[in-house]
Write a structure and sequence with these properties.
- The chain is α+β, with helices and mostly antiparallel strands and about 400 residues long.
- It is about 40% helix and about 25% strand.
Length: about 400
């Protein structure tokens, strides 16, 4: 009798798959990994991106991110994979879990080390387990979750968490005992705009005039901004992008987010240029010497703003380079969603709405798990209220 196996039979098949852990993604075949990663909307779980983080020294034991990737195999075929890292701290996650760490300390419980699933330093929605098409992602997910729990207990880890998760996958993982913690992100959506002016028509007249004035002020100074695909960007400007990134983060001192090495940026030219687009601001006639740059990543209908920096402080340059010019380009290119990155309530004034994202958490320690389940609903309710308040401030015309 033909047909799909029953859920029980499928579960037995998944239980028979062999689990293997790897201390670096270079130990896993690139083509096999990407057969699972390329169909996803997110570009940040692809082999080249994760490999570059490790090979550049941005990720590794010295950084407090120890690669520990889990895979499932059946008859030599990669069925599923989970990019995972043992964390000795919470830096670079952009999920600010210090309240749980402090609660654990007060209760005399150990919070670190822990196991984290995400693309390091990348607060972009889309993390999930990678599963082969047609292989039953729910059953594979439960098998991976069971392996993760066993590993946490065996290695003495406090538990596991997955950050910036794919929403549908996050719902699936509730069956494995994970609880969702809501956070706030920004998102721009292309609602069928013909051009930037059509988008600006959404704003109140006062805000529309202000945006036009900001853009005009730069043009009057002879400053122009171009969008350049990564494959056409001169190689030396990849190094310049790191200089800008480092300078931007250094300005914030201990609150900066300087996690990536120069080698990572230089490696992007060879490994990931096909996914990149740069917003490059220059004085007229000085195209070889940018005043500022923003690095963005595009996959399919989605654009992600990642890093930015400038040579000198010029009023409105940040807004033009990181928001207005990329939105203009996104409309022309048929991009549907633009995630500009974390933080900065000034994004609301430029038409980015607040949306919820979720991290998933499960503790091995029953005391910490009970604490999480008891208080998380109230924490989530407060966060949703804050998201609603932020959206009330977006200066779009009523109706």
């Amino acid at each position: 009798m033909s047909g799909s196996p029953s859920p029980a039979a499928e579960g037995r098949l998944r239980a028979a798959a062999q689990a293997r852990w790897f201390g670096g993604i270079h130990e896993i075949d690139r083509e096999r990994w990407d057969a699972l990663a390329l169909p996803l909307e997110t570009p940040f779980l692809e082999w080249d991106w994760l490999r570059l983080l490790e090979s550049s020294g941005s990720v590794g034991p010295a950084a407090g991110w120890i690669p520990c990737h889990l895979t499932l195999w059946e008859d030599g075929r990669l069925l599923a994979a989970a990019p995972l890292y043992i964390k000795l701290h919470s830096e670079g996650e952009f999920v600010f879990d210090r309240l749980w760490a402090e609660a654990a300390r007060r209760l005399g419980r150990r919070y670190y080390p822990k196991l984290v699933g995400m693309s390091p330093f990348t607060p972009m929605i889309g993390y999930r387990f990678l599963t082969a098409p047609g292989e039953g992602s729910a059953a594979l997910g439960l098998r991976l979750a069971a392996e993760i729990e066993r590993f946490c207990r065996r290695a003495g880890l406090s538990g596991s968490a997955f950050h910036f998760v794919d929403p549908a996958w996050g719902e699936e993982m509730g069956a494995a005992g994970y609880r969702g913690w809501i956070h706030q992100s920004f998102l721009w959506e292309n609602e069928g705009y013909g051009d930037l002016e059509a988008f600006l028509a959404r704003f109140t007249s006062a805000r529309r005039r202000l945006i036009r004035r900001e853009r005009r002020a730069l043009r009057e100074q002879g400053i122009l901004t171009r969008m350049i695909p990564g494959e056409r960007l001169p190689p030396e400007l990849y190094g310049r992008m790191w200089d800008f990134y480092a300078a931007t983060n250094d300005r914030f001192g201990p609150w900066g987010c300087r996690y990536l090495t120069r080698s990572f940026f230089l490696g992007l030219a060879e490994r990931f240029a096909r996914r990149l687009v740069f917003s490059v601001a220059c004085a007229a006639g000085r195209e070889e010497d940018p005043l500022g740059m923003a690095l963005l990543v595009r996959k399919g209908e989605r654009l992600y703003g990642r890093y930015w920096g400038c040579r000198e402080e010029i009023r409105y340059l940040h807004f033009e380079t990181c928001y207005y010019r990329p939105i203009e380009w996104a409309i022309a290119e048929g991009v549907r969603f633009f995630d500009p990155g974390m933080g900065g309530e000034h994004k609301m004034l430029r038409g980015f709405r607040s949306v919820p994202n979720r991290s998933l958490h499960r503790f091995v320690d029953p005391v910490l798990q009970e604490l999480l389940e008891r208080h998380l609903p109230a924490v989530n309710e407060l966060e949703l209220e804050a998201i609603g308040e932020l959206n009330a401030q977006v200066p779009f015309r009523r109706g």
